[in-house]
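[step 3/7] fold_predict: job queued, chain A
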Amino acid sequence: MLTTRQKVLRRFWYATVKLDAIAAGPVPFRLMGEDIVIFAGIDGAPVALRDRCCHRTAKLSRGWVEDGQIVCGYHGWTYGSDGKLARIPQFEPDRKLPDHRVESFHC
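[step 4/7] structure written:
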């Protein structure tokens, strides 16, 4: 699509999905060549992240939302609304998490 080559167009707002659609869980969409997932955050506000887990590049949109965070359906890695890794289920609770994140987008 021609818009993907025009970087200036990435600075604008675009309508993507209806807010009531994200109440049921993560919703994938593609915008300007980017795979993005949108879901309801902790306060119900929309959250948009790149639709790829940084562990095995699985689609986050195939996972679920738990306490306003998105959980990857492949291995359960959990990401906060800022895209920062919040939980690895295989780690002990007191173990420090690696500083991984997926790209987040303003909503």
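[step 5/7] annotate
The chain has a mean pLDDT of 91.
The chain has one domain: 14-105.
exit 0
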